[in-house]
């Protein structure tokens, strides 16, 4: 057994760093958001690399800048948006064996937005409602990371895979962003038929740009205003709150859509025109403010249970 | 249930739109009682219920027929467990919007308080914040639109109204509802199981403190 009193100390958090696992599930009917890693695939990969359960808690790093010190020897992995790493000669998407006292420091990412740090044993902060994720909207879970914060590292469970030093992502599943305009799939939402046909056309024909006020609650897009069909404005104005899901594309009265993120409220009052498949939310989470994207229309294929299998 | 239709919600959820808000909780109960392993969550709101499912485990077309059958013949035994005891909240009617609500409704303040306390409420759904219950049953004479411009900070425990609902802010937050009063009740407590005092289906009575 590895000593349970090891910790990872945050020396600098960068622009925004939070503890995230795969989310706080099962409490949506009490008004509790799902939270969890914005790029779930990247967190899962980081955990696999160090021999953790995919659901273990790690750090979600926004735009690099994180500096941590390890109080004891530990195996870590970085995935997601690739940053310059100082403090270890190893690289991205691989298990790094680090001696006690190691200081690991990230520069800004060369592309992408969110990087993930997993540590063998997981971050053993106190779970809240079954999850160690920070909910930036409600404040549930651990506080947003600040310099000086000590995060305990969990004990390696019996039966967990053994030596993982040097494990690499042999499948190359680490996120590599497409150059240029990203393409995201969009399936029909419940109120798609409230929008004028021209606006639905523009939703798919126009490039959209990420606005700088995007965050874990919602990714805000700028582009041609999406307008309601005549006769549906009143219904939209009076739409009572509907349940929402991360990936839902809701359209406020200004016509500029917002993709709901992991920390979005579980109900919302704006019409939802479309919904991104779960498998595309990781790519969205890697787009920076100013990035361009296009939506590709995908049907809901009721016969195919694998049309949008989350990877 | 008087009527419903199924609306698309991407590739791993279906939105059930009910004809009336009073059908929402029976529909939610019936869908929960299904206990289908591919159904991951059933989330009620004002007039709709979201059914999240695992698209690897069930085809959407099969899930849709399942929902249709379930709502046509709801399992009555599912709700036979009996209602939970009603929650009673003591309310001090000291809210910043009490006078303005009385004026807009054309009622004296004591009559606003009497009507607000006399109603029998049910938590229809939770949203906005952890433990924020939307209580249906508000007296029609008290139905007013929310503030045009939300307050940046509403104190925790504020008892407020908006549209057809009344509710209590579990913690300090921005908010656009009209403030009638306040309560000392703890709406959301992580050390309590379940953490929310008000959950979908909970009956609520208000008493002037």
Task: Quickly list its features.
heterodimer; A: 311 residues; mainly beta; seven-stranded mixed β-barrel; five-stranded antiparallel sheet; 4 helices; 9% helix; 28% strand; disordered C terminus; B: 209 residues; alpha+beta; seven-stranded mixed sheet; four-stranded antiparallel sheet; 20% helix; elongated
Describe the structure.
The complex is a heterodimer of chains A (311) and B (209). Chain A is mainly beta and 311 residues long. Helix content of chain A is 9%, strand content 28%. Chain A has a seven-stranded mixed β-barrel with strand order 11-18-15-16-13-12-19. The longest helix of chain A has 10 residues. Chain A is elongated and about 65 Å long. By secondary structure, chain B is α+β, with helices and mostly antiparallel strands. In chain B, a hairpin with a 6-residue loop joins strand 6 and strand 7. The mean pLDDT of chain B is 93. Chain B has four helices and 13 strands. Chain B is elongated. The N and C termini of chain B lie far apart (38 Å). Chains A and B meet through strand 14 and strand 18 of A and strand 2, strand 3, strand 4 and helix 2 of B.
């Amino acid at each position: 057994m590895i000593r349970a009193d090891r910790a990872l100390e945050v020396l600098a958090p960068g622009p925004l760093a939070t503890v995230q696992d795969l989310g706080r599930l099962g409490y949506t009917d009490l008004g509790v958001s799902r939270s969890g890693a914005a790029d779930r695939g990247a967190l899962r990969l980081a955990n696999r690399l160090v021999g953790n359960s995919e659901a273990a808690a790690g750090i979600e790093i926004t735009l690099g800048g994180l500096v941590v010190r390890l109080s004891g020897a530990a195996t870590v992995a970085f995935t997601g948006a690739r940053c310059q790493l100082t403090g270890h000669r190893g690289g991205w998407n691989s298990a790094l064996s680090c001696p006690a006292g190691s200081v690991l420091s990230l520069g800004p990412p060369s592309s992408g937005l969110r990087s993930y740090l997993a540590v063998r044993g997981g971050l053993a902060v106190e779970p809240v409602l079954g999850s160690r994720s920070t909910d930036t909207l409600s404040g549930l879970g651990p506080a947003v990371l600040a310099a000086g914060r000590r995060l305990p590292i969990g004990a390696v469970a019996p039966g967990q895979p053994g030596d993982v030093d040097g494990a690499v992502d042999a499948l190359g599943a680490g996120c590599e962003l497409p150059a240029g305009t990203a393409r995201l799939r969009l399936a029909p939402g419940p109120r798609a038929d409230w929008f004028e046909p021209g606006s639905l056309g523009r939703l798919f024909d126009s490039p959209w740009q990420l606005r700088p006020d995007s965050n874990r609650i919602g990714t805000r897009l700028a582009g041609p205003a999406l307008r309601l069909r005549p006769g549906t404005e009143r219904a939209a104005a009076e739409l009572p709150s509907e349940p929402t899901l991360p990936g839902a594309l809701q359209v406020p009265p200004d016509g500029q859509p917002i993709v709901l993120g992991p920390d979005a409220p579980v109900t919302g009052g704006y019409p939802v025109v479309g919904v991104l498949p779960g498998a595309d939310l990781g790519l969205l989470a890697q787009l920076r403010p100013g990035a361009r994207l296009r939506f590709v229309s995908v049907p809901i294929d009721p016969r195919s249970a694998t049309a949008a299998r989350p990877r | 249930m008087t009527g419903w239709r199924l609306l698309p919600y991407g590739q791993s959820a279906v939105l059930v739109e009910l004809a009336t808000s009073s059908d929402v909780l029976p529909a939610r109960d019936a869908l929960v009682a299904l206990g289908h392993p591919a159904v991951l969550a059933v989330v009620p709101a004002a007039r709709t219920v979201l059914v999240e499912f695992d698209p690897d485990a069930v085809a959407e077309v099969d899930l849709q027929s399942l929902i249709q059958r379930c709502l046509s013949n709801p399992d009555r035994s599912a709700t036979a467990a009996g209602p939970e005891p009603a929650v009673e909240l003591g309310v001090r009617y000291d809210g910043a919007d009490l006078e303005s609500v009385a004026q807009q409704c054309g009622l004296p303040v004591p009559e606003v308080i009497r009507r607000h306390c006399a109603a029998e409420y049910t938590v229809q759904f939770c949203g906005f914040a952890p433990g924020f219950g939307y209580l249906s049953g508000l007296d029609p004479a008290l139905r007013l639109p929310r503030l045009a411009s939300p307050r940046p900070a509403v104190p925790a425990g504020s008892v407020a109204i908006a549209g057809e609902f009344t509710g209590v802010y579990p913690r300090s937050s921005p908010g656009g509802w009209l403030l009638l009063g306040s309560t000392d009740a703890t709406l959301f407590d992580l050390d309590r199981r379940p953490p929310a005092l008000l959950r979908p289906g909970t009956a609520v009575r208000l008493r002037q403190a």
